[in-house]
TrEMBL record, chain A:
Protein name per its UniProtKB record: Putative spermidine/putrescine transport system ATP-binding protein
Domain of life: Bacteria
Keywords, ordered alphabetically: ATP-binding, Nucleotide-binding, Transport
GO molecular function terms noted in the UniProt entry: ABC-type transporter activity; ATP binding; ATP hydrolysis activity
Alphabetized SUPFAM superfamilies for the sequence: MOP-like, P-loop containing nucleoside triphosphate hydrolases
PROSITE patterns hit by this protein: ABC_TRANSPORTER_1, ABC_TRANSPORTER_2
Source organism (scientific name): Devosia limi DSM 17137
Transmembrane annotation, as ranges: none
Single GO cellular component term: ATP-binding cassette (ABC) transporter complex
Principal location listed in the UniProt entry: membrane
Pfam families recorded: ABC_tran, TOBE_2
Residue intervals of the ABC transporter domain: 4-235
Membrane-related topology note: Peripheral membrane protein
Localization terms from the record: Cell inner membrane
TrEMBL record, chain B:
Family classification: Belongs to the binding-protein-dependent transport system permease family. CysTW subfamily.
GO annotation (BP), single: transmembrane transport
Protein's name in the database: ABC transporter permease
Alphabetized InterPro entries for the sequence: MetI-like, MetI-like_sf
Keyword check for Transmembrane helix: yes
Compartments, as annotated in UniProt: Cell membrane
Keyword Oxidoreductase: no
Annotated TM spans: 57-80, 92-116, 145-169, 190-212, 243-265
């Protein structure tokens, strides 16, 4: 268990800078997610903490010790790869024992003991003798997790470990990761492009965009108070519609390009050109009533819900509704939304 | 017509060709090796195996082949590993460089070595000038010369066999090993080497077989004094000429190679099983 401090990290590949000075303090025992679209530099940042990638500028500290120039094997970290990276020529138990053997932790009996405990943690105690290729994807995943935690490293690095799993297994593994983190309290850096994963697992989310930190905070802060248009679009995939904020008869209203009006929260201070962020799940649709109208383009049936794709003032607008609401394509529907749920982002 | 007979029919031309071009000559060689003036006899084998001169030739052939294979592996593995790590352009150049010796005639190539290795040649001269060796130092007509010449020819077989296997190893495995506490060398030992084993075995099989049966290079670089089995067979055919004895030596060479290869083949068999 240890803290991690990144100071002004920069990285260039062939003169193209992909990370533009990232500073981040990670507390001991914290579970932090690096969230962002592919190509935002999140995996590069993780690999720098691991020592698999050199830094172009800046410092990496683990446990208050500068490790910027240290090779990966001297950093006392463990990393779980997206492709699991299990050694195919070793059995499951030998794979899990590998970091103990290489780091010279304990004698043979103690190592066997730890391997057994780690495999039981991920409920694979009975498969120690198998070769990795004889296991299913989900089981390989668990072996990789056992191998990562067996040596109780100072920092646990997870590089999109759940993205190759199907939906059910992913949910199971999320629960498992939470439980393991609560029990072992390992400082964990988790890289993902999946906002739900980040929201459900982390103590803190660092949202990366184009090599910069866009916003960081607790899942609750990130979800409910996105600071930028990118943040609100990426987290909860909110609809972003440009509008002009003016003073209406009953407080501030947003005026869309086609002249339709949407009432805002009375506390809203912004005036002038802005972007309105409307969460898909916050929008209510109805056939009649007062409020801005949008035209239905298509309906996507999701089982438990319907997703309507509409057009509002020339912008696409998506809404998640109960699955019994039926509107026809081309129909005009009335939008309503709790003004407190609308976020206004100044342009 | 069922699948089995259909498959057999399809394979027939190939089987016939193999039979005519491969099994028939070997069968003929086996027959010839036991033929004597008064019917079948094992006297040719007895003559070979009871004569220290010939046993020495056999031992030298096996010993040099093993040594050549070992040196090829020691150079070929790092070379192939470097090839996987460099860019595609440099890799192409390295491959070309490695297979270049195969593109020239064996005689021309060997004469090249004769020029370099002879008493007044470049390499002994240089070594003498640097005071590393004495006046009488010679490289030509030694086993060293044979090894040098053979390693040059056989290295591509080893390097390319290993390269083929190495390129299929997931690079993440090495990274994973590094994060688990392996130094670079420990990663090579515990991850790359075991996974490259099928390639090393395949390359070794090629190197050993080719060097045990090679004739021109050892003959020209080793001279008449240092004979290998293939040269001895040639001599039996041309100088004496004693065809049955030559056939007996060929059978011994054949059996010897099989004997060395058997454990190797078993090794790869279990690795993939």
């Amino acid at each position: 268990m240890a803290n991690v401090r990144l100071t002004n990290i920069r990285k260039s590949f062939n003169k193209t800078e992909v990370l533009h000075g990232i500073s981040l303090d990670i507390a001991s025992g914290e579970f932090i997610s690096l969230l962002g679209a592919s190509g935002c530099g999140k995996t590069t940042l993780l690999r720098m903490v691991a020592g698999l990638e050199t830094v172009s500028a800046g410092n990496v500290e683990i446990d208050n010790r500068d490790v910027t120039e240290l090779p990966p094997e001297q950093r006392d970290i463990a990393m779980m790869f997206q492709s699991y990276a299990l050694l195919p020529h070793l059995s499951v138990a030998e794979n899990v024992r590998f970091p103990l053997r290489m780091r010279g932790i304990g004698n043979r009996d103690e190592q066997q003991e730890k391997v057994k405990a780690a495999l039981e943690t991920v409920q694979l105690g009975h498969l120690g003798e198998r070769k990795p290729r004889q296991l299913s994807g989900g089981q390989q995943q668990r072996v990789a997790l056992a191998r990562a935690i067996v040596s109780t490293p100072k920092v646990l690095l997870l590089d999109e470990p759940l993205s190759n799993l199907d939906a059910r297994l992913r949910e199971d593994m999320q629960v498992e990761l939470i439980e393991i983190h609560q029990r072992l309290k390992l400082t964990t850096i988790f890289v993902t492009h999946d906002q739900e994963e980040a929201l459900s697992l982390s103590d803190r989310i660092v949202l990366l965009n184009a090599g910069k930190i866009e916003q960081q905070g607790t899942p609750d802060e990130i979800y409910n108070q996105p600071a930028t248009g990118f943040a609100s679009n990426f987290i909860g995939s909110a609809n972003l519609v440009p509008a002009e904020i003016i003073d209406g008869a009953n407080g501030p209203v947003a005026k869309f390009a086609d002249g339709q009006l949407l009432s805002l929260d009375a506390q809203e201070k912004t005036r002038g050109a802005a972007t309105i962020a409307l969460r898909q799940e916050d929008l209510t649709l109805s056939a009649k009533g007062s409020g801005p109208k949008a035209r239905v383009r298509t309906r996507v049936f999701l089982g438990a819900r319907n997703r309507y794709v509409m057009t509002l003032a020339g912008h696409p607008l998506r809404a998640l509704t109960a699955n019994d609401l039926e509107f026809a394509d081309g129909q005009d529907v009335v939008l309503s939304i709790d003004p407190a749920r609308i976020r206004v982002i100044r342009d | 017509m069922n699948d089995r007979t259909e498959n057999l029919l399809l394979a027939l031309p190939g089987i016939l060709l193999l039979g005519l071009a491969f099994f028939l000559p070997i069968a003929q060689m086996l027959l010839l090796s036991i033929s004597g003036p008064d019917g079948p006899t094992l006297s040719h084998f007895v003559r070979f195996l009871s004569d220290p001169y010939y046993l020495n030739i056999l031992w030298r052939t096996v010993r040099l082949s093993l040594l050549i294979t070992l040196i090829c592996a020691l150079i070929g593995f790092p070379l192939a590993y470097i090839m996987t790590k460099v860019g595609p352009k440099l890799r192409l150049w390295l491959v070309v460089m490695v297979i270049l010796p195969l593109m020239t005639s064996v005689v021309v190539r060997t004469f090249g070595w004769m020029v370099l290795l002879s008493r007044s040649g470049l390499i002994p001269e240089m070594l003498r000038d640097m005071g590393l060796v004495g006046r009488t130092f010679a490289l030509m007509q030694t086993e060293t010369a044979i090894v040098i010449g053979m390693v040059q020819v056989l290295l591509p077989f080893m390097a390319l066999s290993i390269l083929g296997v190495l390129t299929r190893i997931d690079g993440r495995l090495e990274e994973a090993a590094r994060t688990m506490g392996c130094s670079f060398l420990a990663t090579i030992r515990t991850v790359v080497l075991p996974l490259a084993l099928p390639g090393i075995v395949a390359g070794s099989l090629l190197c050993f077989t080719l060097s045990a049966s090679s004739f021109v290079t050892p003959n020209l670089l080793g001279g008449t004094r240092i004979q290998v089995l293939a040269a001895s067979i040639y001599k039996s055919v041309t100088a004496t000429p004693d065809w049955p004895f030559a056939a007996a030596q060929a059978v011994i060479l054949f059996a010897g190679i099989l004997l060395v290869l058997a454990p190797y083949i078993k090794l790869t068999g279990t690795k993939h099983g």
